[in-house]
Amino acid sequence: MTLLRDERLVAAFDHASRTYDTLVAANPGYHAHLRRSVRRLGLPGRGQGLRLLDLGCGTGASTAALRSVLPAADITAVDASAGMLRRAAAKPWADGVTFVHTSAERLSEAGVRGPYDAVFAAYLFRNVGDPDAVLAAVRGLLRPGGRLGVHEYTLRGRRADRAVWTLVCRGFVQPVATLLGDGPLYRHLWRSVVEFDTAGCFARRLGAAGFDRVRALPLPGWQTGIAHTFVARRAHGDREEA
């Protein structure tokens, strides 16, 4: 099976948007882990005066995590899937949350402008065709000293981690998704993790993209060795880009 990319991947997410929340609700710790990753950004207080970009917001789970931890922040949430974004925007939100339909590769064309104090991306980078180009764009959107938080399935590199990931996907997620008519998407999601960077490789990718203070932090539960939070910073010495 080849990975889904671009329009095919967006169409698959559009179709899956109607049942996506139901499936992720069956994942123990899913929402708590997102909140943990947001807290790991180390942003001050309740987020008063901060501008945050939620890159690849899906149906809004990552947006809700940002809002829960940093309720006073101004949040721009973007996603390439119109179906996922409609589900996110239809949920009840307090003032200060804006949804934009665009891909991570076309932020400037959609009017998404920095500087942001932090960018948060959950389950995004293994699904883009050119993660280095997206990282470069993200770096340009951050103010000097701004934080990047990446919440991602990135295997630690042990055979046991890949085995657990495959067992969960093939034993539960894929059969349920196939019954719901979304088998191709969830087969892609399994393979996208197996073929993407290990945690160490992704941390090095962040460093090569010009971020400093890069940390790769494991998440607890069955996802230990499978999912990580990556926290990094745009160096204070960088000049802001126009």
From TrEMBL:
This is Methyltransferase domain-containing protein. Keywords: Methyltransferase, Transferase. The keyword Transferase applies. SUPFAM superfamilies: S-adenosyl-L-methionine-dependent methyltransferases. GO terms for molecular function: methyltransferase activity. It holds the Pfam family Ubie_methyltran. GO terms for biological process: methylation. The keyword Transferase applies. It comes from the Bacteria.
